[in-house]
Design brief:
The protein is built from 9 helices and 8 strands. With about 220 residues, it is of the alpha/beta class. The longest helix has 18 residues. It starts with a strand and ends in a 16-residue tail after the last helix. The C terminus is likely disordered.
């Protein structure tokens, strides 16, 4: 199984570990300047952290993005997000996005950038927003918050297979449970969903990761 965004790795899936301090980047991880931290840092500190993100040994940039409810000035968040989009572009790395009531703002920053992959983590949004993201080739990662939103859960029934990933984020829910709940929602089996998610994952990360020994490729 794949867990494309986790703060608490458990070792029984291919896990992309979310790291918020660049100095802690090690192994298969994503590292970025989270929007919640933007309002807590000086301009100098932000510049220093962005430089570390640009040099970190990571498999993706993020999570980064815009949060309309937390993190200080929206304009400052947009500037920091745009800087990390540029880092991802220059390094040829996928981008893991944190978007809270800021979908259109994030989409505007992303416009015109050809990236290795764009993943909206912990996706919560409308059918219309999902369609806009998918039309650009972006991927929606489903986690506990996604499934807890009735509006989002309903849209997840029909979202194209190639647009889906799954995650545990910072919850105590296991990745197995996420697979089971999403498979039931979509009227498929967990084995079929595993194959779908695995294909999507390897499209974005075709190399440069190591699967734990307890993992195996899904049956087709």
């Amino acid at each position: 199984m794949i867990d494309v965004h986790t703060h608490t790795p458990r070792g029984c899936a291919i896990e992309l570990r979310a790291v918020q301090t660049p100095s802690e980047a090690e192994g298969f991880c994503s590292v970025g300047l989270h929007p919640w931290r933007v309002g807590k840092l000086s301009d100098q500190q932000i510049a220093e952290e962005l430089e570390m993100v640009a040099k970190a040994e990571s498999a993706a940039v993020g999570e980064c993005g815009i949060d309309a409810l937390r993190g200080g000035s929206g304009e400052r968040q947009r500037e920091v997000f745009a800087a990390q989009v540029e880092i991802a572009k220059q390094r040829g790395l996928p981008l893991i996005i944190h978007s809270v009531r800021s979908f259109e703002e994030c989409m505007a920053v992303l416009r015109g950038h050809d990236l290795a992959g764009v993943v909206f983590h912990s996706w919560v949004g409308s059918d219309e927003q999902a369609a806009k993201a998918i039309n650009r080739g972006y991927t929606l990662s489903v986690g506990p918050r996604s499934l807890a939103s009735s509006r989002t859960a309903e849209s997840l029934r029909t979202i194209a297979d190639e647009a889906l990933l799954v995650e545990t984020d910072d919850s105590d829910i296991t990745i197995e449970t996420i697979y089971e709940q999403l498979a039931e929602l979509r009227g498929t089996t967990t084995d079929q969903l595993r194959a779908t998610i695995y294909r999507n994952f390897t499209r974005i990360w075709p190399s440069g990761w190591n699967a734990p020994s307890c993992c195996s490729e899904p049956r087709n």
